[in-house]
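Title: Prediction job returns without error message
Component: structure pipeline
Severity: low
Priority: P3
Assignee: unassigned

Description:
Job completed but the reporter wants confirmation the result is attached to the right record. Sequence as submitted:
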Amino acid sequence: MALGLEGRHVVITGGTGALGQAVVEAFVAAGAICHLPVREQRVTRSPAGAELTGGIDLADEAAVRTFFAGLPPLFASIHLAGGFKAAPITETTRGDLDGQLEINLVTTFLCCREAVRALRQSGGGRIVNVGSRAADLPGAGTVAYTASKGAVSALTRAIAVEVRDDGILVNAVLPSIIDTPANRAAMPNAKVERWPKPEEIARTILWLASPENRLTSGALIPVYGNA
């Protein structure tokens, strides 16, 4: 199916991670021009079909604003950047909570805000965030992470309502544990065959961010099958 992304400009944060690489590959294959902000100041190699911009701290308000303001007319913004830290509630510090809120919520908020500015100038578009199954089905020992991803879900739905008259559709996907080399190494005895694969999640994100998605907005899409 042609998705209508040929020649369209798309931001993908977290584009160099395991899920990010699969998402970039899917968008490049669909003909999109991908823009990847990365923290490293000096970028040595760009994925084929993508343009990397180094020195971008996604928790830095001014840096995010400047990055988005310098882009060509935008059609979609995909926010994959985030992080995970686990600890029981009695061992979770204020610093742990602040850290999870910054890396998961603050980065998503700032990118969504600047994406809305850019997409309004473009006449509409798509935003896709990455939440977590933990926001709906929390596990023990993940209180700071769960709270931060729950906030991403609420943020997604709130923005979707606010921009519904601007032609901007805003959604989030909710993965469980993703089948990546790092997760396999961390949990060698897990049933990894039940984990969602990065390329499977990427296909859902691709559709949500494409012109083929004409109706779905404010949705929190489970992408974990029977995991």
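Comment from assignee: result matches the submitted record. The helical segments are 18-29, 61-69, 94-122, 143-162, 181-186, 198-208.
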